[in-house]
Amino acid sequence: MSEKLQKVLARIGLGSRRYMEEVIAAGRVSVNGQIAQVGERIEPGDELRIDGRKVQFQIEDEIRRRVLIYYKPEGEICSRNDPENRPTVFEHLPTLANDRWVMVGRLDINSTGLLLFTNDGELANRLMHPSNEVEREYAVRVMGEVTPKIRQTMLNGVELDDGPAKFESFTEIGGDGINRWYQVVVKEGRNREVRRIFESQGLKVSRLLRTRYGTVILPRELRTGRWTELDKTDIDNLSKMVDLKPRQGTGLFGMAKRRTERMQEKPLAARRGGYLRQQRRDSEQNQDVDGSRREQRPRYEQNRGGFQQQAQTGYQGNYSSEQQTNTNEREKPFVQRKSSVLKKGFKKY
């Protein structure tokens, strides 16, 4: 079982496959102590290094493709590390053994909504590449009047500093006074693209929420700062959209393992109202009296005890009356049981 080197490096999330070919051609990659060549195949157990640093890897057939949906709140940055120690989106994700989460696109610090993460760098690169024209849908609150002429201009295309840009669709969805809400769709993920298109027409975006990326829609029951994982069917649909072959699952053991991990991390929580109302509610719940952000303990730290605690407190499930009677009978002390041994007495030897 082997796989091409540049494909493995791209899937890890170190860059696109073409970029990794350039890195290999530059002599920066070694396999088992030897300078690697483009197209070389590696197997499990090989030692892989980039610029002298060891890199952990797995062959594609051994890895289950995973995709997370994360509901980014306002104030978090899309980076692994921040010199200013601001909260990052990666702080809330589950830990991967011998792997890493790759972010699909970005949202600026003031934007909220759907972010995708995957352990497959190749899938992430294809979803982000402009040539695949993957749709991104946003709910946008705009200060100012959007006239029919301005609307048509933004649909036809405007000239930005980094080239032309346009909305694929533009729909008004409500609002009061000068603050109106619109639903827009773009097929590129350039930096602050949606905001800059509106700014080119003298309009200011006061709120921006991503609600869809490709075939993935932000779940209404998902609260801000929480994540959920796509099932295999949704992941396969997302992969087919960018011409990637679906992978096989990991079997029953892998499914059971993921269920346990999801319960230990932050799960879905019931959510009342729309996206924006829930954001305000979550923001109020996460603030202390002095206005500082409250540090939330992971769920698994709040519910310690596991099997031992359950053994002490007793099972709290739903028994039928007959089952409960039998259970109570078994829990009586030995001397209270009407057993045949007590009736007949012990034999003397």
From TrEMBL:
Name the segments for region: Disordered: 249-349
Species source reads Acinetobacter rudis
Give the gene that encodes this protein. rluB
Biased region (Basic and acidic residues) positions are 279-302
RNA-binding S4 domain span:
3-64
The protein in question is named Pseudouridine synthase
So what does this one do?
Responsible for synthesis of pseudouridine from uracil-2605 in 23S ribosomal RNA.
**Which GO-annotated molecular functions does the record name?**
23S rRNA pseudouridine(2605) synthase activity; RNA binding
Superkingdom in the source lineage: Bacteria
Q: Name one GO biological process term.
A: enzyme-directed rRNA pseudouridine synthesis
Q: Entry's NCBIfam families?
A: PRK10700.1 (NF007976), pseudouridine synthase (TIGR00093)
Q: Pfam families, alphabetically?
A: PseudoU_synth_2, S4
Please state which protein family the record places this protein in: Belongs to the pseudouridine synthase RsuA family.
